[in-house]
Amino acid sequence: MLYKVVALTAQRNAGLLIEQALKFKPALVVICDQSKYAEVKQGLAGSGVNVLAGESALEEAASLAEADMVITAIMGAVGLRPTIAAIKAGKDIGLANKETLVVAGQLITQLAKEHGVKIIPVDSEHSAIYQCLVGEEQNSIEKIYLTASGGPFRGRNLKYLSAVTKEAALKHPNWVMGAKITIDSASMMNKGLEVIEAKWLFDLREDQIDVIIHPQSIIHSLVQFTDGSMKAQLGLPDMKLPIHYAMAYPQRVQSNFPRFNFMDYPELTFQQPDRVAFRNLDLAYRAMNIGGNMPCIINAANEIVVKAFLEDRIGFLEMSDVIERCMQDLQFIESPTLNNYLETDQHTRIFAGQLVTK
Ligand code: MG
After folding, report:
1. CATH C-level class of 291-358
2. Cα 224 from Cα 234, distance rounded (Å)
3. What CATH code would you report for 7-121?
4. I want to staple 197 with a disulfide (CB 3.0 to 4.6 A). Which of 25, 98, 226, 269 is the partner?
5. How far is the CA of 138 from the centre of ligand 1 (A)?
6. DSSP β-ladder status, 219-225 and 230-234
7. Tell me, what's the pLDDT at 225?
8. pLDDT of 220-264, one tens digit each?
């Protein structure tokens, strides 16, 4: 057996957690939503699986002695504390939670360095860059290109975007993902957050990170080296591959995933992103340049506006307006501590929450 699952966690999907726990027999499962504890406990009665509930138990799961690696796939800033716990316990991180690096990239990358821990990206674009950099440790990157599908509203103008519905926004052309990241893809905030994620993962300056629209999502991202040569990683758009790579790294393990057929994609095309219609990309670049707790502010504000958009409380374009207001009005901290980040996250959620319930 290549892998053994020692812990599983879930927010509130008790049914799936029970099903997976019965299949993989981990030592521990954590259900974050305390109200689901009894259901999980009962579902796993007699199985020998220890059941805990609540957010603080995530840190316990993330630092179990038997684990070599922790895949952090929690959505949002909640992933910060368990990721820190895992790093401090010396676990390599398979990072599927980009928000962790967006919110506290400096702190997390510094901590990982101190503990000799690898952060292996699961995000498909960053996995592509990571794969392109294997064997290039001594060579400098000139720049990277993060590819973006453009989402369901690629090519649309402001007038069109002002009236789009959540149903339309949730129909991503290439990738099957959760609701939050699908909305982020439609609004280009996902790419903005990925720019910040790339800065920290690969230690890059702003002018070394570019975004290019690539509607087919076959080239997952590219690196350009100082001799002008470019390396790209390609494959079918399926998250199984980057997950598989992160878990197997530095090896490649045989898989039966569907193979790419050139004749299905006779043309791979590219476009510049539209930064007027998709303002979130610029807001993210701006937050990255300002630094400090500003990326934390846009991340928290974005989580609130996406939720509000999914609940039909604000329009598509208003999401950027609220994020920009938060950037202007919330207190800027140049060198935040962990507590500063957590406070900024809380304050931003409250402030953005007021703006979306007006
Ligand atoms: Mg991605």
Report:
1. mainly alpha
2. 15
3. 3.40.50.720
4. 98
5. 26
6. antiparallel
7. 98
8. 999 999 999 999 999 999 999 999 999 999 999 999 999 999 999
